[in-house]
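Exercise: predict the fold of this chain.
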Amino acid sequence: MTATDTDPEAGARLAPIAERAAAPAQLPHVTAGDLAWRPATRDDARALLDLRNTIADVDREPYRETLEEILEMFDAPWRRYDTDSLLGFDADGVLRAYGLVDSMPGDTRTVRAFLFGGVHPERRGEGIGRELFAWQVARGRQVLAASGKDVPARLAVFAEDDGPVEKNRLYERFGFGAHRFYSELMRDLRDLDAAPVPDVALEGSLRLVPFAAEYDEPTRLAHNDAFRDHWGSEPQTPEQWKNGRSAFAPAWSFVVVDDAPDVEALLASPDTDAETAAALRAGEPLVVGYQLASRFEEDWAVRGFTFGYTDILGVRRAYRGRKVAVAALAAGMRALAADGIEFAALDVDTANPTGADGLYASLGYTKTHGSRMYSVEL
């Protein structure tokens, strides 16, 4: 973690983002492999899905994607595929390589550009990946510079711990370092008599309820508060929050609400953000914790078992230490078991500041897989 991650005044000492990003005036051309290159469109979703899943299969990645997930990428209103994507087709019109640059409109503390891409296994070793990644890095720097946000900045790419070493070497040659590590954890749900899920009694005016549409926006506000002190997390706008829900499983998701919050104390607290303050004044429900889950059925055959995945688990900072996270997660685990799902799964940042590793271990979660984030910090 750098000084700019913890020091709120550090941003004032940074050079302007346009200077730090060192964006090139022109993007490099990709000539290797003799492919025809153009930006992606929504009509390319099926071809992109096939390529991404082919790469995942050969590289033995533990997940697969659906057409709905790819279409959601194109439907996000903030994404600019006309400028931030590149597809390479062979002479027969078959998609052989792709590169995407993704950025998020809600970034306020650190502006980020994420790089996603790959080359069909049959076309590796021709230099396509190296030239395509050079294009992504250059475009990512342009995106950061154009943001106008004079805060710390990051170019980032993700990799599986047991993925092809050639990819990691490519990232390192471009100056990317492995700066963050993540663990996939799973909990066996097949015999809750032998390994019971704890019963958690919430105190006072706290109440555990199934997720419902009325709690959607209050949960977004809770999430932005809960993850404000997490490295690499940025506030989510309403558009970001609602995007990417094709696998969302409301029946496995739960929130904790405070039916009688101390509104005056919360409004007086400097930690209460403006959106939460407005919701409190309007008498909106106050979600203080949440566990939102997804159902990735296409992954079940790859893994050899069924599982439900906790996308996000969080607790407002003012409500930590009151067993809110345990109550929400335990409710999700019970819902999974009731539906005959064999395992509960989630991912955790190994440097999570809230001691999440200890919480998950106490509930029977163990590590099954790992991944990392390579980045250039600007």
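Check your answer against the key: Residues 3-175 form a domain with the Aminopeptidase fold (CATH 3.40.630.30).
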